[in-house]
Specification:
CATH superfamily of the domain at 400-601: Class I glutamine amidotransferase (GATase) domain
Shape: globular
Structural class: alpha/beta
Largest sheet: 11 strands, mixed
Distance between the termini: 31 Å
Number of helices: 16
CATH class of the domain at 400-601: Alpha Beta
CATH architecture of the domain at 400-601: 3-Layer(aba) Sandwich
Bound molecules: alpha-D-galactopyranose, zinc ion
Helix content: 25-40%
C-alpha cells in the first residue's frame, strides 16, 4: 500500500483551471494567490473529461501540463483526479449504456454528474483508457502527490447489466436458490424463487418487502462501487504507485455505501464535510456531529485522513447558506486536524462563473482578489497549518469506541416497526456525544472491527449481528472490557432473520444477562422515567424495551406505566468485564452522567486531565507521535471558557507561547498545545 506522508499538514482545494482556460493571465493570478494563501495541494481534473478528451480518442493534455508545471515550479503538489464523476456528451450520445437507469427501469438522459452505470463494459473501458493516459503522462511529474479517484462515489443503477451482476453476486453468496429462499424467509407472501434468473434488484416499483433482499441489494451497490474503484485504481497503477483515495461524504456519513468496504482499495481515507455552522448555540451539537464523522473517517484505516473538501465560507445548497462567522474558519479547520486530518482542503479554489455552483463559497470570489474576508481567513489557516508540521502523521489513540455499522443502519431502516423513524444514527451519535463531553478520544467503528485495543465499547441499537460480532463482544467482555448495549440489540442475524429464543440473540443475551420480551413505542407526549434507588430520575421514551433479568443486576427501573419497576438500566459481570444494557431511549443528560461515571471508573484517558465533564461548547482531542502529544482545545461557543490542563508545561504551537496549568479560550477560539 502506498503511504501518504508529506511531512506537513497540507492546504488547498478543488481547482478547476479548465473552466478558465480562455481568460488570459488567470493562471498567473491563481499561482500568485495560491502562494499568498499558503495553498500547497490542489485537486485538479475532477470533472475535466470533456476538456481532456473533447472527441472520442482525441486528447488535449496541454492545459493540464501547464497547470501541473506551474504548480510544481511554485513547490506545490496536486491530487490528480480521474474524471469518471461526469462524462462528455459524445459518450452518452454514442454509447447510451453508460447512462444510469432509475429504479423504475427508465434510463436517464445525459447530464449532471454521477449519472453513470458502474457495470457498463463501455464505461469501464473508457474510464480505464483515460485513467491510463493520465497515469502514463503524469506518473513522474514532480507535482503529483496522489490520485483523487472519481468524486464522491454514490447512487445505484438498475440497468439489465447491473441486475445480472447482482444475480451473480447472489449466486456467489448463496450457492443455490433454496439457501437464498431460506435466508429471505421466502414463503412469506409467496416470495420463493425457482431460479436466480427470477431475482430482481430491490426497487420501490418492485420487490421492496423482503428485508434480506433489500440488504443484499445495498451490499451489492457497495460491492459494485468498490469493484469499479478497483478497476479505476488498477488502470492508474499500471504507471503510478502514488497513493489513491476517493473522497467520501457527509456529517452523518452517507449511508448509500458502506465505506468500510473500501479499506482494501484506499491508501488514505479522504472526506468532504459541510457542517451547517450558525454562529450560535447550535454549533455545539454541530461540532460534535462533525467530529463524529471525522472519527469515522479516521477509524476506517486507523490512521490520519485527509479533509478533501470543506467550504471556506458558505455553500449554495443548504436551506439557508449562512456565512461562517469570524473565527469559525480557523476553528473548524483545526477541528479536522484535531481528529486526525493531515490536510485542510476546500471546495472550491476559484468560484465558477456559470452553472450550478457559481454561488458556492470559494477561496477566490468573483471579485478576483485577495482583499476579501474569506481570503484572509484562508490565509490565516494556511499560516496556522505551517506551524503544525510536527502533528502531520500523528495518530489519534482512543480507548473508547462506538459501533456505527452500515449493515445495521440499513437493516434498521428496512425494518417496519416498532416505529417508522427509529433514529438509529441519532442514537449512536447521542452516545458518542456523551463520551466526547467526558473529554476522551473516541473511535467510531464497524461492528466487525477488532475490539481488543479498547477498554470501553458502546454498541447502541446493534439490531443486526454480522458473523463473528457476538463472539468478538464476548471475548472483549471476558477479557475485562466494558460493553454498553441498548434496546433493539441482537434482534436479527446478518440476513435480517430474527433470532429465535429471545433477544438479545446470537449469544449477546448471555453477555448482557437480560432477555427482552416486548418493545413499546411512545408518542412524543408520552414519557417514562429511568429511576435510580437514590431517587435520581431521567426522562425516557420513544422506544422502551420490557426486559427481564437473567444474570444481570438492575441499576435503575422504569418509573411509570404498566412496566414500572422493570429494569431500565442493568449491568452484568461477564468474565473479567462488565456489560451494561440501557432499555430505553433516554434524555441526553442520562447518557452524559452514565458515561461520565463509567469513564472515570474505567480510567479512560482524558488528555486534558479533567475529571469533571468539559464545559458546554468545549472539545478536546489528542494526537500523538512517539512521545510527542498534541492536544487541541476548542471552544464552539460564544462564551469565553477556562480549561484546566493536566501537564505543567505546553508549547502553544500557533503563538509559540508557553502555557501551563490552564488555557483561557475566547469565544470560537482554538489552541494547539504540545508537550513531551
Ligand atoms: C460535493 C462535491 C463538490 C461540490 C461540493 C459543493 O462535496 O464533491 O464537487 O459540488 O459538494 O458543496
Ligand atoms: Zn447499470
Amino acid at each position: 500500500m502506498a503511504q501518504w506522508n508529506m511531512g506537513k499538514i497540507m492546504h488547498g482545494g478543488d481547482y478547476n483551471p479548465d473552466q478558465w482556460r480562455h481568460i488570459p493571465g488567470i493562471l498567473d493570478e491563481d499561482m500568485r494567490l495560491m502562494q499568498l494563501a499558503r495553498c500547497n495541494l490542489m485537486s485538479v481534473g475532477i470533472f475535466s473529461w470533456s476538456a481532456l478528451e473533447p472527441q472520442e480518442g482525441q486528447y488535449d493534455f496541454g492545459w493540464l501540463d501547464e497547470v501541473l508545471d506551474r504548480i510544481a515550479v511554485g513547490g506545490g503538489k496536486v491530487f490528480l483526479a480521474t474524471p469518471s464523476g461526469a462524462r462528455p456528451a459524445w459518450m452518452s450520445q454514442k454509447y447510451p449504456e453508460v447512462l444510469r437507469v432509475r429504479p423504475d427501469g427508465q434510463r436517464n438522459f445525459h447530464g449532471a454528474r454521477h449519472n453513470h452505470c458502474y457495470t457498463s463494459p463501455v464505461y469501464r473501458q473508457k474510464v480505464a483508457q483515460i485513467n491510463e493516459k493520465l497515469a502514463q503522462r503524469y506518473a513522474d511529474h514532480p507535482a503529483l502527490a496522489g490520485w483523487h479517484i472519481s468524486n464522491e462515489y454514490g447512487g445505484a443503477c438498475w440497468c439489465p447489466r447491473c441486475q445480472e451482476a447482482f444475480r451473480q453476486f447472489l449466486k456467489e453468496k448463496y450457492g443455490d436458490i433454496q439457501t437464498l429462499n431460506h435466508a429471505y424467509w421466502a414463503d412469506f407472501w409467496s416470495h420463493a424463487y425457482n431460479d436466480f434468473d427470477q431475482v430482481e434488484a430491490s426497487s420501490p416499483y418492485g420487490e421492496h418487502s423482503v428485508d434480506g433482499l433489500t440488504l443484499d441489494w445495498k451490499r451489492f451497490v457497495t460491492h459494485q462501487t468498490v469493484d469499479f474503484m478497483r478497476h479505476e485504481v488498477a488502470a492508474v497503477r499500471k504507471y503510478s504507485d502514488k497513493p489513491a483515495t476517493a473522497n467520501f461524504m457527509c456529517i452523518y456519513p452517507y449511508d448509500g455505501l458502506d465505506y468500510w468496504k473500501f479499506r482494501d482499495v484506499l491508501d488514505v481515507v479522504s472526506w468532504d464535510l459541510y457542517p451547517m455552522w450558525r454562529g450560535d448555540s447550535n454549533d455545539y451539537a454541530m461540532a460534535a456531529r462533525t467530529s463524529f464523522s471525522q472519527d469515522v473517517a479516521r477509524s476506517i484505516l486507523g490512521k490520519p485522513w485527509l479533509l478533501m473538501e470543506s467550504t471556506p465560507s458558505n455553500t449554495n445548497w443548504m436551506e439557508v447558506c449562512k456565512l461562517k462567522r469570524p473565527g469559525m474558519h480557523l476553528l473548524s479547520s483545526l477541528q479536522a486536524v484535531a481528529h486526525g486530518a493531515d490536510s485542510v482542503q476546500y471546495f472550491q479554489w476559484r468560484k465558477s462563473r456559470g452553472s450550478a455552483e457559481k454561488h458556492h463559497g470559494a477561496v477566490v470570489d468573483h471579485v478576483g482578489s485577495e482583499h476579501t474576508r474569506v481570503f484572509q481567513d484562508v490565509m490565516q489557516v494556511g499560516q496556522a497549518l505551517e506551524k503544525l508540521d510536527s502533528v502531520a502523521g500523528a495518530q489519534v489513540r482512543a480507548q473508547a469506541a462506538v459501533i456505527f455499522d452500515w449493515d445495521n443502519r440499513w437493516a434498521i431502516q428496512a425494518a417496519q416497526g416498532p416505529r417508522k423513524d427509529k433514529q438509529a444514527d441519532e442514537t449512536v451519535f447521542e452516545h458518542y456525544f456523551a463520551l466526547r463531553k467526558c473529554g476522551v478520544n473516541v473511535d467510531v467503528i464497524d461492528s466487525q472491527c477488532d475490539l481488543s485495543g479498547y477498554q470501553l465499547v458502546a454498541a447502541p441499537m446493534l439490531y443486526l449481528l454480522k458473523p463473528g460480532v457476538s463472539e468478538n463482544i464476548r471475548k472483549f467482555a471476558q477479557k475485562g472490557g466494558t460493553f454498553v448495549a441498548t434496546y433493539l440489540s441482537g434482534v436479527t442475524d446478518e440476513n435480517s432473520l430474527c433470532f429465535l429464543g429471545g433477544t438479545p440473540g446470537g449469544g449477546l443475551g448471555e453477555v448482557l444477562g437480560v432477555w427482552s420480551e416486548e418493545i413499546d413505542a411512545l408518542y412524543p407526549q408520552d414519557q417514562n422515567a429511568v429511576v435510580f434507588p437514590d431517587g435520581r430520575s431521567y426522562r425516557c421514551g420513544f422506544l422502551c424495551e420490557l426486559s427481564h433479568l437473567r444474570t444481570a443486576r438492575a441499576l435503575a427501573v422504569y418509573g411509570s406505566d404498566f412496566y414500572a419497576g422493570m429494569p431500565a438500566l442493568t449491568v452484568n459481570d461477564f468474565g473479567a468485564g462488565q456489560a451494561y444494557y440501557i432499555a430505553a431511549r433516554t434524555e441526553q443528560a442520562f447518557l452524559d452522567d452514565f458515561y461520565q461515571k463509567l469513564t472515570l471508573e474505567k480510567q479512560i484517558e482524558r488528555p486534558a486531565g479533567n475529571l469533571a465533564p468539559l464545559e458546554e461548547g468545549v472539545f478536546v482531542s489528542q494526537r500523538e507521535k512517539g512521545t510527542v502529544k498534541t492536544i487541541f482545545v476548542m471552544n464552539f461557543s460564544a462564551q469565553a471558557k477556562h480549561v484546566a490542563l493536566r501537564e505543567k508545561s505546553y508549547t502553544d504551537l500557533l503563538s509559540g507561547a508557553c502555557v501551563s496549568g490552564a488555557v483561557d479560550l475566547a469565544p470560537w477560539d482554538v489552541r494547539v498545545l504540545q508537550y513531551c
